[in-house]
Amino acid sequence: MLEHGTNGPITGRLPSGGTYIVSPSPALPVAAIALWFRAPQTGFETTPTPGIARVAATAVAGSVPITGTPLGQLVSRAGGRIGIATYPGSVSISAIVPATSAAQIVRAMTSSFFTPVLTAAGLQAAQKDVGSEARLHLFAVDDQLQEALQSELFSDGPARYPGLPAVDAVRALTFENVKSFATRAFRPQNAVLVVTGAVDAHIVDSAIPGRTDGAVQETALTETPALVPVPVDRAAIGPGFGYGWSGPAIASDREATALDFVADYLFRPETGTVARALAASTTSLNGKFVTYHDPGIFLVTASGGDLPAARTTILAALAGVQQPLDAATFARARDAFVYHIRSDLQTPTALADTFGWYSVEGNPGYAPGAGGLEGTYFRDARSLTPDFVAATALRYLAKPGATVAFREKAKSS
């Protein structure tokens, strides 16, 4: 296993505001660099603009900055890859590069985003790239099921909208709107810089201070849950169904960990009890708890294969975890859960994603790996009991939630 500091990452303040997190690990000669920003994926305006965060980040990374070379080209020349992801309340720009190039990419990434430059050519290229992703997204049944569930779980806020909107919506974004979003979202005071891998704490000295405009970090996003989610039944590219529930906020860390345990115990690929029960079928199964600022959400989706059998198995399993597991079964499952979480943190990229996510959602100390094995997350995991997990599952998963059913579209002749 890749080892990082047993006491967790090194944290501090960036020169112009915002925070940094550095997790040194010399085991692999690579570095993962990520900039996270608190920003709604639908923009800051009263009227939501789906896709604006994804297009803005892609456009800034592809525009010619003050340094003269777009960030994406610099990362590619270093032998790395750049990634851009958006979530209801955050934007992530990341790269995995050889450790020898880490300082250069930290400097270039902070230079590009702490003083963002947007060009017409950069925006046009971004709209083309994001539009292509949006077309492919139309064929991702599981992703569409999850987005439909998330949309029904909330009555307001960016979680109601897909991260990849319709292609026409991407094309309709104007230069002025994208620039306005980038100027507000991408500034040092609103950033979390995460660097993991074969680096030391001095890597943050390569960060460009950026603008000192006195602005503060955006607050973590609180969504408005729907009081009574409306069932969804519609035609789609393929058949499937899903269930969703709003859950504990990230501040309720022990309850959040309990629902992480439930998702792992039931739905983890290959080892989860439901996953094993459906292994012989061709059903695609996904189950997870997403730890948002407030509230988190528990999602279960299934597509293809024997859907009636999958539905019966899933509902029985969800009802079963609302009663305490026997002591021996629970002890084995809890040990496996802790092992799985540790295993999931064995690359610089996984660590960068984890530290960035929990920071922008408002509870950096709860991130798995923060504080090492004695940190909050692993203490919570080891403290779980059969009664507490069952009570948490009963509290959140027994209430009415969102339901989605997809019927396969009729094929045109």
Question: Would you kindly provide a written description of the structure presented here, covering whatever features stand out?
Answer:
The chain is an alpha+beta fold. The chain folds into two domains: 197 residues, Metalloenzyme, LuxS/M16 peptidase-like (Cytochrome Bc1 Complex, Chain A, domain 1), CATH 3.30.830.10; 185 residues, Metalloenzyme, LuxS/M16 peptidase-like (Cytochrome Bc1 Complex, Chain A, domain 1, 2-Layer Sandwich), CATH 3.30.830.10. It contains 14 helices and 13 strands. The strands form three sheets. A six-stranded mixed beta sheet has the order 1-2-7-3-5-4, sandwiched between helices. The protein has a five-stranded mixed beta sheet with strand order 9-13-10-12-11, with helices on both faces. Strand 11 and strand 12 form a beta hairpin. The longest helix has 18 residues. The N terminus is likely disordered.
Topology:
Blueprint: E1 10-13, E2 19-24, E3 30-38, H1 52-62, H2 71-77, E4 81-87, E5 90-98, H3 102-114, H4 120-137, H5 141-153, E6 154-156, H6 167-172, H7 175-185, E7 191-197, E8 224-225, E9 232-236, E10 240-246, H8 253-267, H9 273-277, E11 284-290, E12 297-303, H10 307-320, H11 327-343, H12 348-360, H13 376-383, H14 386-397, E13 402-408
Parallel strand pairs: 2-7, 9-13
Antiparallel strand pairs: 1-2, 3-5, 3-7, 4-5, 6-8, 10-12, 10-13, 11-12
Helix pairs in contact: 1-4, 1-7, 8-13, 8-14
